[in-house]
Amino acid sequence: MTMKINLTKVILIGFITGICNGIFGSGGGTVLVPCMVMFLGVKENRAHATAISVILPLSIISVLFYFYKNMIDWGLTLKVALGSSIGGYIGARILNKFSDRTLRIIFGISMIIASVRMVFW
């Protein structure tokens, strides 16, 4: 599926996503998915899958910085990576079983819970 997309929009969305990832450790889901859906017209399922693909190079760049600053707890990283890998596999397998609307609702509820947690905890 080829789409004609405004390159300036794509680069700006990528830039903002990268800044959010570097500062907050997130951005692929919280910034990239909604931007791809709203501003680029990408279907919800494809936006989620694309965001996951973008997160890898984003994370590599960020982890290099954090590595050089000696900010990584490697023991914790390995334990969380194990659970995350299993969860990521399961999530990728079931992604296409949800409609765009259901994904949007699940994603929205997740963002609301995350924002409330960040404000009050």
TrEMBL record:
Topological relation to the membrane, as annotated: Multi-pass membrane protein
Keyword terms, alphabetized: Cell membrane, Membrane, Transmembrane, Transmembrane helix
Regions crossing the membrane: 12-42, 49-68, 102-120
Entry GO terms, CC: plasma membrane
Family matches, as InterPro entries: TM_pro_TauE-like (IPR002781), TSUP/Inactive_protease-like (IPR051598)
Subcellular location: Cell membrane; Membrane
Signal sequence interval, chain numbering: none
Domain of life of the organism encoding this protein: Bacteria
Claim: Coiled coil is one of the keywords in the record: no
Recorded family membership: Belongs to the 4-toluene sulfonate uptake permease (TSUP) (TC 2.A.102) family.
Protein name (record): Probable membrane transporter protein
Lineage of the species this protein comes from: Bacteria, Bacillati, Bacillota, Clostridia, Eubacteriales
